[in-house]
Amino acid sequence: MDQLPRLNKMMKYLDDISWETEMWVAESPTHIIYFNGERFLGPCEEGDQAEEMEVS
Fold first, then answer.
1. Quick one: how far is CA 30 from the chain centroid?
2. DSSP state, 17?
3. 3-class secondary structure for the chain?
4. If DSSP codes are grouped into helix, strand and coil, which group holds residue 13?
5. Where do the domains of the chain lie?
């Protein structure tokens, strides 16, 4: 698992983060971001839509 202090730092390096990496961001300590969510959540059902996250 990799860690960063802030979400905007993660966004800066997003293109360099490897698939199947787990990220923890200190400003959101109760959340872990999985790059390959299908592995943990399974495929979306028809009609489900992911919400886009906006980072400032």
1. 13
2. S
3. CEEECCHHHHHHCHHHCCCCCEEEECCCCCCEEECCHHHHHCCCCCCCCCCCCCCC
4. coil
5. 2-39
Look up residue 15 and give its two tokens: 């293109």
10-49 tens-digit pLDDT? 888 888 888 888 888 999 888 888 887 666 655 556 655 5
| Amino acid (1-letter code) at residue 7 | L
Structure tokens at 30: 């109760």
In angstroms, the CA 32 to CA 51 distance is: 17
3-state secondary structure of 15: helix
Six-digit token pair at 24? 């923890």
